[in-house]
Input
Amino acid sequence: MKILGVETSCDETSAAVIDGNQVLANVISSQEIHNQFGGVVPELASRAHIRLIIPIVEKALEQADLTLDGIDGFAVTYGPGLVGALLVGLNFVKGLALATGKPFIGVNHMEGHIYGNILSQEQIQFPIVFLIVSGGHTQLVLMEDHLKYRIIGQTRDDAVGEAFDKGAKLLGLGYPGGPLIDRLAREGDDSYYRFPRAMLKDNPFDFSYSGLKTALLVFLQKLSEKEKEEHLKDICASYQKAAVEPLIIKTINAAKEFGARQVAIAGGVAANSLLRTWLKQACDENGFAFYLPEFAYCTDNAAMIARAGLEYLRRGQKSPLTLNAYPALKL
Ligand code: KG4
Ligand code: ZN
Output
């Protein structure tokens, strides 16, 4: 089955064509206009999606060497995300479905991230514990089969990606902050300062990241400009370690508790180099198989949406043309 996927939930306009697990095209346009504001400006995002959606879809079809006649069905993100941004992709795909008479399916963006990992692996096995870490989400999900999700833990305040982005802002770095902190941390000393880790005894699988950002703010207020400059890499390394450590401990504990011998990560923060190497090592020590997504499918892209959509469409499930966008859609 050949699926055309579209993703416009935030600041990436993306279209992809897949044929089963094979990606024929995955075109992503990241909107750089937001960099100067230190975060995504929703109205600017919607307007950029409107401008980009047709050329990006055309480019994806061209790269896949197909026309709409060769596509069997469509998949599009319908939440969670920015409502104006979601509506652009959703309505565009509804138009394609109406014009071609082919089915379309609305996909949850987080489910897309899960299938972004599955896209890179032919042999995924269940049950599997997924750690989903992005700019808006930090969740532990137990999957017992395709399309079956059980949330076993989540953040009570900020997402871990938000902790990276807000931390980077406090440090005077750019946006998005995750890749910048990641890069600087590689040359820093992670024992320079011990930032707090919230372990939450009442639900050992929940997360909390608002305290970490505040701890950084308080710590920076005590430093001189010279100290901040000299120790920037050490601060990044210490902060990153405090952000990543609870993810490792809780993911491994969840796999043990729920008898899963498979562990996987998904979402933008899955591109983090410390998280990737540390979790791989912890899985090896515990004899768990570890599924690491390819970098290209970690951050927002339409191939992951198409791959999740394929699971529904191949089971004959489709969405009605009345489907709405849901900014706070849950998994
Ligand atoms: O999944 P994603 O592209 O968009 C959302 O759905 O949120 O994730 C974006 C998040 C941002 O917070 C960004 O800072 C973070 O992923 N991120 C990283 C890295 N690359 C992206 N965080 C830590 N280390 C990275 N290398
Ligand atoms: Zn995302």
User: Anything to note?
Assistant: The longest helix spans residues 232-257. The chain has two domains: 2-114+298-313, 125-292. The two ends are 25 Å apart (CA to CA). The beta strands are 2-7, 12-19, 22-30, 73-79, 104-108, 128-133, 138-145, 148-154, 262-266, 289-291.
